[in-house]
Amino acid sequence: MVVFTHHQLQSRFSTTPFHMKLDDHNDNDEIEKIMMKKGRKAFMEFPYVSSPQKKLMVDLVSTVENGLNKKLLPSTLPPNVQYYQNQTNTTHASLHIRSGKPSSHIDFIYGGWIHRELPNGGALNITSLSAYLNASTNSPNFLLEIIRSSPETLVLILDLPPRKDLALYPDYLQKFYEDTELDAQRQILEKIPEVKPYFSSSLYFRRIVSPTAIVVKIESEAGERIDEIIEEHVDLIAKRMLQIWLEKCIVENNEKVDEIERMYLLKRDKMVRSKTIEIEFSSSLPYLFGPEIANRVWGTVQKYFSTS
């Protein structure tokens, strides 16, 4: 979930066009498979971030896909949504979305990166990974986002966003946030001098994250120090939180929701996702990529963020 306004965004990635003569329908299918693999490869390259950040993202995506392997369907994103760039070649992005199988608790997993060259010669890089569950379970989702607006500044968002009101359901708070000691991960990170709490300008965002959410700004005049913090601290904490999510919300998840709770979850998920996609895509995409690309990406992503 990108929580920055459109004037803070932009990116860069290009690929060689793929050309082949098509003889029949099977050739079409084969080319589509090749393009899908190419799209995932572009996503997994994370070409504009530092080595520690790239390693973290690749490890997390691999852990999620391996951990959910039999519960996920292959990606069906069109190649021109898997990666795209603006006409001036200053903004580039890649998306990776896989739906869960109907028999699973997974609705879809969502990953992406965006790179924007800034007028001052710098660059903005955002990498993200989320996992959304469906209404067959009330377990929290998973959220990671890393926003690096300069070599000296990074914002980290890491959370298991709740899908029930924690004030109304204290057992839910106990099970997923207190018993798992998630807050200990935030406390470890905030002991580092360069790490300070970050307060998003979006009151909506501040309302939907959990009380154990890690939402911090990491600043250092020495850019390599931020990479050290990623490598020595953020990497371990993010992987611990992902492991907790996989174990508590997927592997050990055998609870059933009744029809009343299912309808509540559908309504809440729809509201949260509608606002999320509005914040993340509606204003920034046209500004960054122009109306044609924005409409193409928006139309595709909307299908995943809608609930039924």
Structure, explained:
The protein contains 10 helices and 8 strands. The protein is an alpha+beta fold. The protein has one domain: oxygen-dependent coproporphyrinogen oxidase. It has an 8-stranded antiparallel β-sheet with strand order 1-2-3-4-5-6-8-7. The longest helix has 29 residues, at 223-251. Residues 1-35 have low confidence and may be disordered.
Brief sketch in words of this structure:
GO terms for molecular function: red chlorophyll catabolite reductase activity. This is Red chlorophyll catabolite reductase. It is built from ten helices and eight strands.
Could you give the count of β-strands? Answer: 8
In the CATH scheme, what's the topology name?
oxygen-dependent coproporphyrinogen oxidase
Strand order of the largest sheet: 1-2-3-4-5-6-8-7
Instruction: Characterize the biggest β-sheet.
Output: 8 strands, antiparallel
InterPro entries: RCC_reductase
GO molecular function, one term: red chlorophyll catabolite reductase activity
Organism: Cannabis sativa (Hemp)
Pfam families: RCC_reductase
Describe how the helices and strands are arranged.
Blueprint: H1 25-45, H2 51-67, H3 79-82, E1 83-85, E2 91-99, E3 106-117, E4 123-133, E5 142-150, E6 153-159, H4 170-178, H5 182-190, E7 195-197, H6 203-208, E8 214-219, H7 223-251, H8 259-282, H9 284-289, H10 291-305
Antiparallel strand pairs: 1-2, 2-3, 3-4, 4-5, 5-6, 6-8, 7-8
